[in-house]
Amino acid sequence: xxxxxxxxxxxxxxxxxxxxxxxxxxxxxxxxxxxxxxxxxxxxxxxxxxxxxxxxxxxxxxxxxxxxxxxxxxxxxxxxxxxxxxxxxxxxxxxxxxxxxxxxxxxxxxxxxxxxxxxxxxxxxxxxxxxxxxxxxxxxxxxxxxxxxxxxxxxxxxxxxxxxxxxxxxxxxxxxxxxxxxxxxxxxxxxxxxxxxxxxxxxxxxxxxxxxxxxxxxxxxxxxxxxxxxxxxxxxxxxxxxxxxxxxxxxxxxxxxxxxxxxxxxxxxxxxxxxxxxxxxxxxxxxxxxxxxxxxxxxxxxxxxxxxxxxxxxxxxxxxxxxxxxxxxxxxxxxxxxxx
Length: 340
Description:
Elements: E1 2-8, E2 14-21, E3 27-31, E4 37-41, H1 56-62, E5 68-69, E6 75-77, E7 80-82, E8 85-87, E9 96-98, E10 112-117, E11 120-127, E12 138-146, E13 151-160, E14 164-165, E15 169-170, E16 173-174, E17 186-189, E18 191-194, E19 208-209, E20 221-222, H2 232-237, E21 241-246, E22 255-261, E23 268-273, E24 277-281, E25 304-309, E26 324-325, E27 331-339
Antiparallel strand pairs: 1-2, 2-3, 3-4, 5-15, 6-9, 7-8, 10-11, 11-12, 12-13, 13-27, 14-26, 16-25, 17-20, 17-22, 18-19, 18-21, 21-24, 22-23, 23-27, 24-25
């Protein structure tokens, strides 16, 4: 592993890049700020498989780009109630908390490096009691490791000293062509159902079939074929920004969730996860303020985020998989990015 100085945050704190390499020559670069993935290069490839930003200042300004998200990935509305106490959280004008809140984003915090070798690095964060409005001291460790199969594997663990909701992900933006729109790339999802939302993108609590909707990717389909559909769910999100319910042979099984292919370059990605859901997001809300590593303004549809996680607003939806972590338990989750 090569450790190098990447830059300084606005407050002067040093940020370092950790470039991992496997025996086949695959590399991945991870910052100790937020576990941000700035680059993934499969063996022999010059194209970056993720859409990176221009510099550290851009990552810090975003807070959510290619980085670890917690304590609760995705959306919560009106906070949550746990063991008779209500936790209001920081909310936008519509009562929604997204990704734990931008102002205290985990993606701009410096994580401790607790272990490192040529092909792996382990990061740790202590999220103190009251952090982002959540109860309990939560200790999170995430190991990034390149495997002999040209995979980037993320293993998450978390423990707490008080009951608290936990929902973690890495908000990686993929573009297998390296640049340009992803509308011509092919996507297949291992999902027969999704969680429909209201106009604030909060799940209703229902689980609906993807059949006959724009979210039906059970067969490989071009992303651009239906991304601008006028279906109600698509119009609400202005594209894809939906949680799909992954097909599982057993709860927590590490199984494929998505397959992404770029027909022009031949690059492929198979994503596997132990998580029950995945948010599929077609970069709808970029507004011209973000610039990529080549210095070009990022436009909508120039990447696809595949955020493996539990369902949005689960603490407020009794029928959704439980996200409460309790003392004495260990949260564990694995996501694998397999490149070809």
